[in-house]
Amino acid sequence: MATSLLDVPAEIIALIYQHRWQIELFFRFLKHVLGCRHLLSQNPQGIQIQTYCAMIACLLISLITGKKPTLRTYEMLCFYFSGLADEDDLINHINRLQSHETR
């Protein structure tokens, strides 16, 4: 491991690297599950809004389904909001998630 942070104690550097993979997993989740592969804005406030919207979507999916958000559930919600799926399709998807949980 190499760093240019010469004024930071070695213990702190070790902690940073220890938590690195959690950060990497978060960004993978943000990109692959919540569809934030590309920034919609170059403006810091625009990036902040996009990130907050993705996090709110994640929390709402968790509240509705009671499970960790998946790409399939996110896609189903996108289909519903764009009119490609109706309310019955969305409810059936959520019910299938909950029935898989009870097995």
Walk me through this protein's architecture.
The chain is an all-alpha fold and 103 residues long. The protein is 71% helix and 0% strand. It contains four helices and no strands. The protein has helices spanning 10-32, 44-65, 71-82, 87-102. Helix 3 packs antiparallel against helix 4. It starts with 9 loop residues before the first helix and ends with a helix. The relative contact order is 0.08.
Short account of what is shown:
The protein has 103 residues and is mostly helical.
Secondary structure layout:
Blueprint: H1 10-32, H2 44-65, H3 71-82, H4 87-102
Helix pairs in contact: 3-4
What is the radius of gyration? Answer: 18 Å
Strand pairing plus helix content: what structural class? mainly alpha
Annotation field: number of helices: 4
Please summarize the sheet with the most strands.
none
Tell me the series of helices and strands, N- to C-terminal: HHHH
Low-confidence stretches: none
Give the CA-CA distance, first to last residue.
Answer: 45 Å
